[in-house]
Amino acid sequence: MKKSLGIVLILFLCCSLVSAACTESDNGKDYFNRGEIYINSNPANIDWCATVCHIKEFYCENGINKSLYYKCPNGCDINGYCIKNPGNMTEYCKDFPSPPEDVLCLDTDGGENIYVAGSVITKEPYSKSMRDPQTKQWVSYGKTFARDDFCGTREEIWADIRQCSGNNCGVYEYTCSGEGEYMQPGEQVYYSCPFGCNDGACNKPTKPSPIIEADIGNAKYSSTRLDTICQTILGFVDAGCVYYTANYQGEDIYVSVRIEDHVKKVDEKQYIDSIEESTTRVKAKVAAYGLDASAKLIKNSDKNVFIFDRQFEGKRNTAYMWLSDNKILELEFQIRDEADESFVDAYLNKHPSDLNLSFSFYSLISDYWIYLVIFGFVIVVIIISFIIVVLSKKKTPTTSSANKNK
Predict the structure, then answer these.
(1) Predicted local confidence at residue 372, as pLDDT
(2) Which residues of 111-148 are buried (b: 16+ CB within 10 A; e: fewer)?
């Protein structure tokens, strides 16, 4: 009997300790004030924004630490409480979906979106071991943690400025990286804003994109990037140039599209000279790799484009290049066999080539003028020599005519 009473007493004391172990600072489910949970007076959890419209509220129930998601009608403040008064987020949060069971990292602009100012919100524990492997619960004190996209320059990484413009203007974009339990804030990445930056977002282009932002055949469109540095293709410097890049990917194909959109029309002769000079340099580098590498420049008169074909260790890289008004285009294929001509035709339909690579007397002169000059010089020398010989023969009297005169 005494033994039974002892066991009951021990159980009662344990339950009392458990019930006293969990305490909180905001007196229960208070969604409009940030609260903290303490286990045996030690910090355990803190209310935090699971999404821009949801708070993860921690509370004590019968001495046990519990939590729930609550949808904040006016949005969730990054400090860990629901916003009381209606504002910009009220309409946005009406149809905002509920969060999953546990959100480790949330990017409010949906990922790499340079045209929307976003924040990366996550719960960052102090402990290196983030979660208990059995219960999947946080095992150390956590806090709301946020990083906001911001405008800046290439050189001054941490110079968070409200707005900027010009060639040295861009946005520092934050995203989430990893998956599942290992999702966390990724590193900041700088993206150029050719049309300026305001409040953590690039200004949208003032003219249509030259990129075909859709799937082309088996090549699936991925994304488009803009920059203000336009020396990457052939070295033309233009203060107002916008540099577009886009990627497409298929089962056996990967295409990288690069377009320089210059303010002024690019000179055709300067472009062709630059093409030949740059490909000559590449040929020299490729040749240095040995017999298993090759490179050649082809003038395609049917499409009026240059084709630069390179092969190295069984891998083939083919680039189609041409001019279209004030744009320089380059379509680079990483393929096994032949390039997808339909892909090239799609871009030629959108940006017709201004080059004239078909055979003509003008192209013959422009391409081989040095040889024609040498040939002409040789012909002139031969003609002059022939005339001199003929004239010298006329002036020299023959032997028979000299005897007759005597």
Answers:
(1) 74
(2) eebbeebbbbbbbebeeeebbeeeeeebebbbbbbbbb
